[in-house]
Amino acid sequence: xxxxxxxxxxxxxxxxxxxxxxxxxNKVYRIKADTFNFILKxxxxxxxxxxxxxxxxxLHQEGFNQTYTFYPLAKEPPLLFDQTYYGCxxxxxxxxxxxxxxxxxxxxxxxxxxxxxHAVTEKLTGQFQMAVPHFNHIEKWQERTAIFLNNLPVIRxxxxxxxxxxxxLWADWSLKGMQKESYIFxxxxxxxxxxDVAHHNFLRAKNGDVYLIDFDLISLGNPRSDYLxxxxxxxxxxxxxxxxLADYKELADFLDEEGFIYALAFxxxxxxxxxxxxxxxxxxxxxxxxxxxxxxxxxxxxxxNFFMExxxxxxx
Length: 316
Description:
By secondary structure, the chain is α+β, with helices and mostly antiparallel strands. The chain is built from 15 helices and ten strands. The chain is globular, with a radius of gyration of 21 Å. The model has no long low-confidence stretch (mean pLDDT about 95). It holds the Pfam family APH.
């Protein structure tokens, strides 16, 4: 019913005739038009829609072409349907060879694109400094920890107490060290951070080019925050090896900074995924909880060894 109503609305509001709506995920659709395809993406506010349209356009103007463009397809913008604003984005035909952090070549390519993205967005900080939030890494993780602590009664039903206590030890050590070395995140150059450098936000197109997509979480901050998140994302695929992490030139210099080393110890993925599972009640679904247990239990010994290596790096 919803798609039928949306289809009828778009037929009236767009300057191109459309033939089909294909759902991709929540409030994201591939639209088959008469002569081409495009993506219809929902935004929770008009401000967010305008911001991302403007940001995408500015990226292209500054030479960062590894992302989509917005199409002006509405007869009378904005598109507003069921209290959601929609934008029409370029459809990038995906390759069957999907981007994945399991492959070394993709991990390297992702860092190369992220470095280029930061070089461009450093020029855009003045233009967008009033439109995007300022990112505070320590504050973000303190909040994540507080939610995790509140969720402990449920988490301890699935995970033994000793393992949970170990995660909390890592988090406490990490946050205290980051606070001591907070200047590295607060000072230095500022860029517009992507904020979600997960593998699914790097898209390999049919022609082989790799694109960076989805700017829902952009903020103003130090590039270390994106690189730290990238390191956290790839560590499971390099066996939680600090030595292997140093082989990535974009990350190597940061590994000489105590603040960055402290930050690597924070179990951000564990806290994030458990908080999400409890918020969305996914822990009641057998397949979801099994994936979560695989993430948090199977890698425990490797992560514990990694934590000890980090402590040695800072002389503790």
